[in-house]
Amino acid sequence: MMEKGGCLCGAVAFEFDADPDRVIACHCRQCRRQSGHYFSAVSASKAGLRFGRDDGLKWYRASDIARRGFCGTCGSTLFWWPDEGPVTMVAMGSLEAPTGLRLGGHYWVNAKGDYYDIADGLPQEDR
Question: Where does the chain show beta strands of DSSP type E?
């Protein structure tokens, strides 16, 4: 399913074919620090991600396995880009509505913030 997205200020715009079966919420410490809460994202093929505009796109080396893409102008969180493999994760908050996508599960729930509960009944994993 084709999705379009971008940052708050318009310096980054993109489109891609989303995998509707891979919409996740990551509760790890890095994702919470980067996004301000948990990171909701959808899987996309790296090769299939097409940029209409990437003037503001910046990358931060977050770990030894991945980097994070954001807009250097407005600061919008956009991507989690692993070094290995053919897919990336695109921030759900960066997508144009309506998406038709639905959250499928929660990851790293053992690291979630203590200020909220996960009560949606979706699968939860400690990784």
Answer: 2-6, 12-26, 39-45, 50-54, 57-61, 66-71, 77-82, 87-91, 105-107
Residue 101, amino acid: L
pLDDT in tens, 15-27: 999 998 899 999 9
What one-letter code names the amino acid at 5?
A: G
Q: Cβ neighbours of residue 112 under 8 Å, at least 6 residues apart? A: 27, 32, 38, 106, 118
Q: Look up the CATH number of the domain holding residue 20.
A: 2.170.150.70
Q: Residue 75 domain-assigned?
A: yes
Residue 125 counted as domain residue: no
pTM, full prediction: 0.94
